[in-house]
Amino acid sequence: MKWRLVAVFGACALLGLGVGPALADTDPTYPVTSATDWTTGPQHDWQNGNAGGNYTFQAGMSSGPVNRALTRWPQHYNPASLFQNLAGESQAATDSTFHAHPDLPYDDVGDAGSPDFMPDWNHNGVYGDPGDFDADTDSVMDSAAFRYPCPQLDGSVLYETTDGSCKPATDSTATFKLGEAREVKIVDARGYILDATLWLPGDAVNGAPGPFPGIVYADGFDSRQDSYYWFAMRMARAGYLVLTYDPAGQGESEGTAYALYDSGMAPCQIGGACRDLQDAVRWFVGDDIAPVPRQESRATPPKNPAYVPAGDNLTNPVRNLLDTSRVAVSGNSMGALAVDDYTYGLGVGSGGDGRPLPSVRAAVPMSGIGPMKASVPIQLQTSDYDGQALATPAVGGVPTGDPSFGGVGYPATKNGYDQLRAAGLGSDALSLVVLEGGTHLDSVDIPYATRTAWSLTVAGDSALDFIDCHARDLADACQRAASPRPRLSRSFASEQDADGPAGPEPSRCITVPDQANINQSPTDFAQAETGHPVYNCTP
User: Fold this and answer.
1) Would residue 153 count as lying in a domain?
2) Residue 119: pLDDT above 80?
């Protein structure tokens, strides 16, 4: 922490001394104002009547956990039946105690995602009340309607109506378009039961023949799916079938945090999470999941990942609606590292079980760089202050981790991007998108998370355009994906190599930096302040 404070004070001192004459369009206050951009998200949460804060406190921290315990525990801890399933109840208690994060058995204590992106799980006509969280975390396989979100740059969320416009949820005259969320369970290769959700666009629910393109999204560490419901809903609004899931060891899935690791998945450093993404994609497209030994001793035997009747897995109930030739993968933080690893498996020709992986048309890792191959079109996303502290701004341009092992933040992500290009292998597009002012939580939607007000809009629209370009071959989306958009970084270049590392074209700047920020190295900071920002893409 000391080096961070020194870097901050050093940057401010440079501003005060004025390192060379700044150009007329260089704002000397920008490094300070930019470094506080991550407060705009929490500010909006507060200004919005604290509805999100009240929801997450009630659903995740106060009356919600108590009520869930009073309702659920008698079903499991009745002395008359407890000893009939003592091994299962003991394992459930162990899983919750050593989960990422620790929980109460059959309960969820802590963060609850934003009510703006919650389906009506309890079917009372109200979207995003604490009862929806209760229904979302129970053992019943629910289905629920959800509205199509239109996140705005100011942090507000509108919803798409049947006439194509986006209006506030409070507009009583509006008729909102609806999709459907369906809870499912997936047995992974190690025999853990994963909690998952299918997200269907309204057309798929209402009988349109399809097939529909698809996306699988992977959680970050110590999180639940509901932190990323915003992404699933945004993609479903655009016509995608989406699968979200909790990897073994966190969320509502089986396993202790030890399940997030798996030594059989080298070079991935969080091998359990990487294996679970591969299994989730296989389940999504209808491929078999081959059993592998698990490395965690448990009181209960593993489930059989074969499909019924031979095993315990149910097939994807909407597999017939899915265009398996047009599937993409995305994820945040740990989930981004799993996406990176998926591209690695495609590049070397096999996944963790030694079999070829299902093909995908695009990969969008958000805030995580690890061993990967330019085997498919890839859009790397990061933010100005994405870095080691995760929830607070990174400063000083110090790389966090080495791309050979995995890291976060602009320096590590840029290094990884350049390494892929330097390898000269792969002819698919490679893109680097840098969001303005944000931190590592820019793709997480929890009330009062330290992220910018505009992060979900920019991250979601950037990902959608890139995926639409490569999964649907939409020319206008390709153009948008390679064009500037509001709230991209002004200090680090966003760029794209359209013909990939093996192609003759250079990496072209989507944006050219024109301001300094305190997450640049001192040398780069000084050059930016004197009107000579550092970048190596071609304008």
Assistant:
1) yes
2) yes
